[in-house]
Automatic annotation (TrEMBL), chains A, B, C, D:
Residues 143-274 form the GFO/IDH/MocA-like oxidoreductase domain. It comes from the Bacteria. Pfam families: GFO_IDH_MocA, GFO_IDH_MocA_C3. InterPro entries: Gfo/Idh/MocA-like_OxRdtase_N, Gfo/Idh/MocA_oxidoreduct, GFO_IDH_MocA-like_dom, NAD(P)-bd_dom_sf. This is Gfo/Idh/MocA family oxidoreductase. GO terms for molecular function: nucleotide binding. Residues 6-135 form the Gfo/Idh/MocA-like oxidoreductase N-terminal domain.
Length: 375, 375, 375, 375
């Protein structure tokens, strides 16, 4: 194994869950070394957080613009950066690092407007850096196995796609009780106009396209805000029409009591179906008429590489680690001048599609759930 | 226990599945005695079928009109009749018996048009007979327990209703291969304009309203026909808007490989949720934030009467038997001059609503899935 | 279909669960007509119960000996009888009817001693009546499918058999609180020396042999009484050695909180395994190395006849009904002089094996769980 | 966070699964830095493996004795070591590092004889190093939550313990086909006299004691070798008697087709029960009479710390990482002169009990499954 890539991190100071998850994930396959960070916009907290994660104080920044410039100027500067900020800062942070020629792993959504997302895509193309979007579910081995099976024709021509992402944590007005995660995620200024639509709806949308290999063409959406006083949607229900004739439904909810995090996908073709859920992420159900087979991660019939043999469950951190491993591979390929094409790693184009999806859903819900094209 | 009620049966000759199910179900709680029938429109088959089920040959009919008249004229004539015919005959058969003053248990859908259904409702009101519709799922103990719990406020105010009814048996063109059930169910002349919409979509719709206690106000529907050459829809996807602000989704499909008969309902309120599926009909999941409880039919916390103690599973026949027991109770109450009001037994009004639902869905799908009111 | 057989019932008066279950089950497939009974040893209660189930008062008996004699003497006397009494009365009741030449469906266990069971078997052979034992689980379609698959070699040579039957209802001292079922089942005078061993251990034992096709040769048992003051065992744990080299474990418990009635069987061969539980009685899991398949009752790959198509669940009553249907078939065959041999219906030999099992388990537990042969 | 502890690794060269798992796990919580290793006894392979994991070539050893001595002599020598060797080498490797005053995380079983295990325990006590045993399942958050709940009285007094660990990977003679894992694990010279008993039976045994808080006093065991020509047991069935009167059963099998790695534990008390399985490691079932509750890792009712919020599954690597985090804590406490007592970390005493368990089981099976004390 070659030397580790030098990694920076933006956002994710002490107490944040996703920042810690990214740091662990980047370590799991030992392809990165965390050497610089802007962990908080509060100087105090940035410093303390940096010390906690063993980053030298002179490489702990408060401002990501400054970090991008200074690191780009160092001979031992970071080669890649993970961006784990509130949604409204994704765009400017990503922009700063891309402009500095640094490869980026960015949390979704890419931006708070489609225009920004497209501008970023143009910049990425021009700068020719590797740009990955942290659609973590794309890192689960059995999600990839499902994608591989669909592509290999295991279920025939896709007809119906059912995806749902129910959560319960915003079922009451927790943003008024000091829950930090809830506060920024329900604040349109920091989260964007889309609430659960952007936060988890985009995950559901990406998973549906990623596995089914189908592109959504139009959506009819009814967005609801069930909690009084909430400023963004907390429940999203949609009909989907795909380019090649498949039809689908998408439900994302943050008021669905009974589900901590119930992402689930089912894809039905004319010869079979596939079913996966993050609740049992190491399993995949493959049905043919009259028969349902349970396939386990790592078992003989599977073709997707795994770290652990079947029965030794992998989880969320390993999924995110997989994206970091792919990211490292893509950077290596880039350095060798052989950039990858048909990769499993979600990239800038997926991020832009996520924004188109949000725009179309908002437009549809404003027009009494009428069908709207993604464009 | 009083004497058994004299029951007739229309439809359901040898080899039919639902006819046999009705006969068994009517026997289970021993409230009916089958004494007359028109089991087939073929004289040969009617006769043979009647002999098989121990019906005297002189009370085996070929024509249901004749049966209604002759039985009404006998002093020992049938008091009630079960109608298990192809959809397009429900209306005229029901009409014949209602006009003869005979109580009716009718398979759904009531009719093939809303106008017919409403005419029938008017007639039932005039004749003042007991009219039950065989929405069998309403007979499962845990469906009733769910309905009871919602009404008792166990999940608070209803916000979201998710219902689905996936089946796989029409995933390919089986109607061309001689499957009798498939042949009439995909024939618009015998099944009505609605395919899976009428066949199973109405079950899903009824269950959603029955348990949630909410009335659907509008629907946005995309109906598909995935199998080439099929003349009716085989997949139905809908957004639902309820009168009191709840939102929902409904999926009914007969091309969903992997599901033999996967009816499932979830109702989410502001304090909890309930989840039930015919796949595990003896269980109910009741969630509160951070906790999911599994409740078993017959266990201490339940208040719905059962035949068997917990752990001794009841199934489809017991559910249908429950409707027949309710039907017998309703007839008894009618005879005593104390007709029931807030019963658990689906009646003519439910049947009419099912027709409104079909009409609205057809209208919506013809208008690119735009929202349509049920009226 | 020919005329119904005339059936009598002994035991199972008002309020009893198993008596009602037998009556419904005998009705389901319409092969029997209940015409006489001794439903209670209390004249008052016998009379009232008989009226409730539409038995003529002159054919309602208080004493089963008298019933056997009088019915045998009538030209329209019962041809068969169901015995649903407390355990200590099974032997004498069965004896009375067998001596009168009446076919018997008897609840298990056959007797309270092996000697009685063997005497009964001798009598049955001499009288040459049909004698069935109500091992109800043997009536579930997927139990039969499992048995068929094992016999057909689907899992290869059987190596390991794991069976368990956990219940929770005796986890505390309910027999002191007036629970009638608990009172007689924990009374050695009415239930026999074996508590949960006889009540549910025998069901587990029968199921294990019935499906695996293997005969238990020896057992090592530790019986416990966890509830203070209880006079019989309430938890049974055993190692099993089978004649052909398979090994197994059996657990039956009535203090296993969390299980209402968790009977479950797994059979492992050198090529695959089968797994079934009464908790999901319509499913069977068939595993081969690296792959688990879920098979549904009635689906294309199955060969066991069913009443309802897949997805329409059958339950406990249908299982018991299956035994009554088999019983009717056996009686018909007997009448035609062509008695059946390799039937699916549990018979007197199964009942005797159950008693041998009890004896060996009691002997083993008295000798510090040492291995004891069944003989 | 303080600086990372310097860690060495013995065993686990290229291609080995458990070595890689230990290295990742030690990295996850960032408490260790891998700086030295003896990854293989083949000089070539050791060198190549060391390079792959970024260990300087001059700190890559071939012999663990030499490694222990040289590292102990360096001022920057390792403070702790992970031992991931075939079973027969655990004892001598552990001995070498303990003698050198280096803290040890050792794979189970501790040794191939009870005498060796006890000698090691004596040495550990004398040297006063931290000694941890990699009973990985003890690192799962919900296993710890279960242990905590039992201790807190959530299920009352423990009555019955049911543990099983079925695997399928040795169902046929794979050791003859070149499977390296199978070859050493079925070789008595490298694995010890116990096959599946030592390999997975000890895991089941540890889990049962760890969660229930009960100590096994006696066992009755039947060990089988189902695969022809195999030199060790491949199936283990046992009755357990606990010191305080609880009774239990243990099944460990490597011929159980249908299970990749089905470790499952159930503990029944007089007030409730707990159920956990590695198949769904993020869930725990807590039953009280008439009610089963599903508790999720990280949800409000739990008190065990977690890395990720509920619904973001943790897996095997996180469980092992937890043991490494505990190990780091224990070393820190040791350095501060405040060694921990009632820790969640399995230690040398657990390792010794595992050996007593093996000895008693072998003795019992040699005496026709008679009860044998653990001593």
């Amino acid at each position: 194994m070659a030397r580790r890539l030098r990694l920076g991190m933006v956002g994710g100071g002490i107490g944040g869950f996703f920042g810690a998850a990214h740091r662990i994930a980047a370590r799991i396959d030992d392809r990165f070394e965390l050497v610089a960070a802007a962990l908080s916009s509060s100087p105090e907290r940035a410093k303390e957080s940096a010390a906690q994660v063993n980053i030298a104080s002179y490489r702990s920044y408060v401002d990501f613009e400054e970090m991008a410039q200074q690191e780009a100027a160092r001979s031992d500067g970071i080669e890649a950066v993970g961006i784990v900020l509130p949604n409204h800062l994704h765009y400017s942070a990503a922009r700063a690092f891309v402009e500095a020629g640094i490869h980026v792993m960015c949390e979704k959504p890419l931006a708070t407007s489609l225009a920004d997302a497209e501008a970023l895509a143009t910049l990425v193309a021009k700068q020719s850096v590797v740009f990955a979007v942290a659609y973590t579910n794309a890192g689960f081995a059995m999600v990839r196995e499902a994608r591989r099976l669909v592509k290999a024709g295991a279920i025939g021509k896709v007809r119906v796609v059912q995806v749902e992402f129910p959560q319960e944590w915003l079922a009451s007005d927790v943003e008024s009780t000091g829950n930090k995660q809830a506060t920024w995620r329900t604040d349109p200024l920091r989260s964007g106009r889309a609430g659960s639509l952007g936060d988890i709806g985009t995950h559901a949308f990406h998973l549906a396209e990623y596995v089914s290999g189908q592109h959504v063409e139009s959506v009819a959406a009814q967005l609801s805000t069930f909690v009084n006083g909430r400023r963004v949607d907390d429940d999203v229900q949609m009909l989907l029409q795909f380019e090649d004739g498949a039809k689908g439904m998408l439900w994302a909810s943050q008021v669905a009591i009974g589900h901590s995090n119930g992402l689930a996908l089912r894809v039905y073709g004319d010869e079979g179906s596939l079913s996966w859920s993050v609740v049992e992420p190491n399993l995949l159900k493959l049905a043919r008429p009259g028969e349902v087979r349970i396939i386990e991660r790592g078992s003989a019939s599977t073709a997707t590489p795994v770290r652990l043999p079947p029965g030794h469950p992998e989880g969320f951190l390993e999924a995110l680690a997989q994206l970091y491993a792919d990211f490292a591979d893509a950077i290596s390929a880039y350095k060798k001048g052989t950039p990858q094409s048909a990769s499993f790693l979600p990239g800038i184009a997926d991020g832009v599609r996520g924004m188109r999806f949000i725009e179309a859903a908002l437009k549809s819900t404003a027009a009494n759930a009428s069908m709207q094209k993604l464009d």
